[in-house]
Amino acid sequence: MDIFRRLRRFYVPYLRFLGMSLAALVLTTALGLAYPYLLSLIINRVVLAHQYGQLLLYVSLILVASLVKGVFNFLQQYLGQVFGIHAAYDLRNTLYRKLGTQAFSYYDRVHTGDLMSRLTADLDAFRQFLAFGFNGLVNLVLLIVFGLSLMVFMNWELTIAVLVLMPVLAWVAVRFDGQLWPAYKEVRRSLGRLNTSVQENIMGVRTVKSFAREGFEQEKFGGRNESYYTANIVTAALWKRYFPYMELIGNMEVVIVLLVGGYLVIRGQMSLGDLVAFFSVVWYIVAPMSQLGYQLNNWTQSLAAGERLLEILDAPNPITSPEAGHSSVLQGRIEFAGVDLTYEEAPILHDIQFVAEPGQTIALLGLTGAGKTSLAGLIPRFYDVAKGSVRVDGVDVREWDLQALRRQVAVVFQESFLFSTTIFANIAYGHPDATMEEVRRAAQMADAAEFIEDLPAGYSTLVGERGIGLSGGQKQRIALARAILADPRILILDDATSAVDMETEYGIQQSLQRVMKGRTTLIIAHRISSLRRADQILVLDRGRIVQRGRHAELLRESGLYRTIYDMQFRDQGLMPVGRGEGFSAFAQAASSDAFS
Ligand code: GTP
Ligand code: MG
Prior knowledge:
Layout: H1 2-6, H2 8-11, H3 15-47, H4 55-101, H5 104-109, H6 112-154, H7 156-163, H8 166-203, H9 205-210, H10 214-266, H11 272-289, H12 292-314, E1 334-343, E2 346-356, E3 361-366, H13 372-377, E4 387-392, E5 395-396, H14 402-407, E6 409-412, H15 423-427, H16 436-445, H17 449-454, H18 472-485, E7 490-494, H19 502-515, E8 520-524, E9 536-541, E10 544-549, H20 551-556, H21 560-574, H22 582-595
Parallel strand pairs: 3-8, 3-9, 6-7, 7-8
Antiparallel strand pairs: 1-2, 1-4, 4-5, 9-10
Helix pairs in contact: 3-4, 3-6, 3-11, 4-6, 6-7, 6-8, 6-11, 6-12, 8-10, 8-12, 10-11, 16-18
The protein binds guanosine-5'-triphosphate (GTP) and magnesium ion.
Guanosine-5'-triphosphate binds at residues 108, 343-344, 346, 348, 366, 368-374, 414.
């Protein structure tokens, strides 16, 4: 019940549809019960009284009643659906908005497959309950109340005889619901696992194929498919066991009515017409009563689904924009003061201290896992510091309006992500009303214009799922063009040219130098050649800044920078085009030459 209360803001605005649907339901049920009553009239007043002239009248009454009932039944179902669809629409939007504002740390924890199934299957289970389940339950109550009143009105002795078995019926229904609940939960769980397996296999198809592990994956999938199959068989078996019980009870009711009713008719205490009418009322009630288990199950399932939706809605978000946060045009001064960062208690950065003046270029160098990406992510507040503070233009980022801050900071991520749309829309993502000219200029700066214009559809080429595939370096350059076009005051390039060759990288750096005039840039790179011109180079080792200074100064010191430089210098001296697997063979050949 609490779950429905907590979700009420989604359906309360549409309660009028439910209200109208329930009104139609009451009329449907009432008209449905008029049918047995008319039946008794036909038998008592027409057939038994030999009043054949009235037969047509009563038959037309029955006809009209069923026609009107049909209309109300349609309205009841249609309005119920409208109610559910409206509420689900709002809920879906709110869930999506919530996911959109969630912090990075949330996405480190959740599984895509699970989230997707919540947004689709669970949301739909909840919608179904609003659309049909609620009416179903109300219908049951109405039938019992109306039907019983009618029965008492017709013959209270026979009613008592019928009621004897009702508690048994209810007991069986509730008992089966108890057994069905875990069975259904298992169906959902195994479906979730099956979906995860499908999703991973599609996403990881290249890895699977390259390691020739199709057989293993097939087997894993087969196992999960079998669990899902078994779970479904178990529920089907439960249902199949449930129905005979219900049918047995229903038939026993018939026997009781025939036995007791027949006795009453023979004794002249009840008319035949009343018995026939009573009989059809009993049928009218027994059928939905046998659905009680199903209705209860619907209810429990929607509760479980609602709970999974609430988990998304109620998940705390540690990174939220402060009310009346700071917002102004950025100058680009960045200051880290005694910054510590932890991921779920694990220390990642220690006592980071540095200042970047507006327009300066700061470079981060360090071995893999040193914390470079983590450090850069603190500026647009992807994560919050554990200690110290990160200030942009002298204002703590936690006091900045989040949108205002992020709009002025552009990040080219280590893994470039393209949306499945045109190249144009991908580049213009942060600046949707950019003109073709602006997009082309940004692409030129990122050295992407040439290959884009060579594509059959140029900037209108679709990328991603349905579109053509791009190379790693091409994707990276599109991501770079996107950041340039966003016209940020602070630009963060996280290994943004790692996938392009040195010559292209050099070209990109030349144009970037022009773009970045008057803007603060944070460059993360593994190649010293990409950072040698930086105003300040920070060398990061296991979360600490171990060296800092300009290229020339750092070269003079002995330390990590010098070590990395020496390695790369040797590398470059031997192989002008950079890294590659030929390196070790080359080095061996060179050294053996030197020694021979
Ligand atoms: P490269 O990109 O490989 O050069 O490394 P990096 O210097 O950018 O390292 P990064 O900042 O990505 O990671 C620093 C440390 O934080 C590593 O030990 C990671 O294992 C850890 N780490 C990164 N992201 C997460 C995260 O989302 N959760 C947790 N718990 N740890 C993380
Ligand atoms: Mg990184």
